[in-house]
Amino acid sequence: MKSLSAAERRRRRGVYVMGVLSLLSLIAFGIIPGTDQKVTYGFILDKEWVLFHQWSIASKSASQLFSAIAIAGALLAYTQFRRGKTIRLASALTSVGILMAFLSWAASGKFIPFTGLLQGALLLSVPLIFGSMAGVMSERSGVVNIAIEGELLAGAFASGVLASLTHSTTWGLLIAPLAGATISFLLALFAIKYSIDQIILGFVLNVLVYGITDFLYKRLLIPYQSTWNSGPTLQPLKIPVLWKLPILGPIFFDQTIIVYIMYLAVIFIHLSLFKTKWGLRTRAVGEHPTAADSVGINVNRLRFKNVIIAGLIAGFGGAYFTVGAVGSFGKEMTAGQGFIALAAMIFGRWSPWGAVGASLLFGFADNLQGVLSITGTPIPSEFMLMAPYVVTIIAVSGFVGRVRAPAADGAPYQRGGSK
């Protein structure tokens, strides 16, 4: 019998875990509960076309149905593993099944605005997606970007202040990426030119931005709030026809311009990273900078440019907190979202689409705990917030698959060799 490699053993272990979790979902949510009230899912938010208005089903029956879907996904994953194929689709099917089984149990006897739940999850994911894209750009180039939090906060501050002064969301949206790029310039300067430890540098830059924004918030924004900190917010733009699509329309095509920019940014980064000469060179300097240098690529110059671009992207994510949401800037309003974006990037294995998926998971969990805390749930909502972090720890530990950073990530490069 052919022996399995370490990576294959991890994949097999992950398949077994999926199967066990699916069975536990069936038992915990579909068999054990004594109550069997109906759960109602609503699918209409506005005036979109109606596919179906709502769906009411006994919570135990719904949990059993979704657990069966999860089990089917686990069986499919096992079959694909035996054939040497990827199990990503089967893993997603299992995850969705378990999640919906839990939701059907937790919302027994309640009404869940399902389309609104997904729409809110997307909105909460916006800064995480921008931040994780910034992380992908930097780290695929070989520069660890712990400063995503500072880039987001700088973008939020600059956007909120300029929008307040000009009474224009356009100017607020334009200044945000420049603010993010300023922080990333400092990261690139000290990390690439002076070879400062990139992890320590990132934390220092975060503290610097925290300090500057807190000082200006207390001395300027609070005393003169009506002038400096009361900006307008972006309004949703309905994409003709598309916004009327059932379920999908209100979620994806009835959003503000910053969300549409996010769509374009993700697509552009993915295509550029894997379909262009620039993307090939970027991945080369992140994996084998010496080899890249040997064929005429200026490693440090390319890294410098890419880190600046990463800051521009993160700045847009910062703008979402102010002009994209509440208008005014609040002290430390990013609240660690940059670090969560970093975790999403790792969870997504330094891939644009993987980072998007991980960010959506965080956003969904965040919104779900808010919805369940309003409707009422058998378990404390705080446990809902723990779930994606636990999953991330499992993923980063390599329990369900290998997670490997670019080989030269965090290693300064000097011509003639890295140090």
Explain what you see.
- The protein is mostly helical.
- The protein folds into two domains: 6-113, no CATH class; 124-418, Orthogonal Bundle (ABC transporter involved in vitamin B12 uptake, BtuC).
- 69% of the residues lie in helices and 5% in strands.
- It is built from 16 helices and seven strands.
- It has helices at 6-31, 59-82, 88-106, 114-140, 148-166, 169-193, 198-221, 225-228, 248-252, 257-275, 277-287, 289-294, 299-326, 337-347, 352-375, 382-397; strands at 38-42, 54-58, 111-113, 237-238, 254-255, 413-414, 417-418.
- The strands form three sheets. A three-stranded mixed β-sheet has the order 2-1-3.
- A hairpin with a 2-residue loop joins strand 6 (413-414) and strand 7 (417-418).
- Helix 5 packs across helix 13.
- The protein starts with 5 loop residues before the first helix and ends with a strand.
- The model has no long low-confidence stretch (mean pLDDT 88).
What can be said about this structure in brief?
By secondary structure, this protein is mainly α. Helices cover 69% and strands 5% of the residues. The chain contains 16 helices and 7 strands.
Provide the structure class: mainly alpha
Unreliable segments (pLDDT under 50, ≥5 consecutive)? none
General shape: globular
CATH fold topology of the largest domain: ABC transporter involved in vitamin B12 uptake, BtuC
Helix content: 55-70%
Under CATH at level 1, the class of the largest domain stands as: Mainly Alpha
As for the number of domains, it is 2
User: Count the strands?
Assistant: 7
Number of helices: 16
- Mean pLDDT comes to 88
Strands of the largest sheet, in order across it? 2-1-3
Head-to-tail CA distance between termini: 44 Å
What's the architecture of the largest domain in CATH terms? Orthogonal Bundle
- Radius of gyration using CA atoms only: 23 Å
